[in-house]
Amino acid sequence: MVDSVPLLDGNDYHEIFNLDDPDDWSKLGISLPNRSKRADKYVHYINCPYAIIEQKSSTIKKAISQLEETAKNFMSNGKNVDYLVIVADKIRKSERSLFRNERNILFDPRKKEPYRIRVNSKEFEVRIYYREQIKRERSRKKITDFIR
User: What's the predicted TM-score (pTM) here?
Assistant: First the structure.
């Protein structure tokens, strides 16, 4: 579970909520409709931001849809949302003309700008991390923590 949670701006998580687990919904004090498209995790980071993370989508387009729907639900329930994050193995060939990873920001090469999602009045640049990258970063962090 932790291997799929990226370090955000070098910061680790404080608490992870699994959005497939009804007990975690209860802990958050919210109820999401059972049939809603939703992301996989809601993560509170040590330096206080909150992220919604989608990690199991078959395409980037589906991941974006799940992030947007989950952010709407959370924000309408008064929950903080600071980041929208996709965790993927790679960007599929069929989507490379639509999306690119530029320093962990999902980029729209047609518009030559970061891909953005607007939820209510808040605009998010979507972050993207590859699973192998997260494993490497976590491995480095373990070594660094051990040395300290």
Answer: 0.91
From 127, 111, 87, 106, select the one nearest 2 (Cα to Cα): 87
> In this structure, what is the dihedral angle of CA atoms 66, 60, 121, 11, given to the nearest 10 degrees?
90
What backbone phi and psi angles, to 5 degrees, belong to 72? -60, -50
**Whether the Cβ atoms of residue 106 and residue 114 lie closer than 8 Å to each other:** yes
- Residue ranges of E strands in 7-121: 13-18, 41-45, 50-54, 83-88, 100-102, 105-108, 113-114, 116-119
- What phi, psi does 2 have (nearest 5°)? -65, -30
In tens, the pLDDT along 128-142 reads 999 999 999 888 866
The torsion angles phi and psi of 53, rounded to 5 degrees, stand at: -120, 130
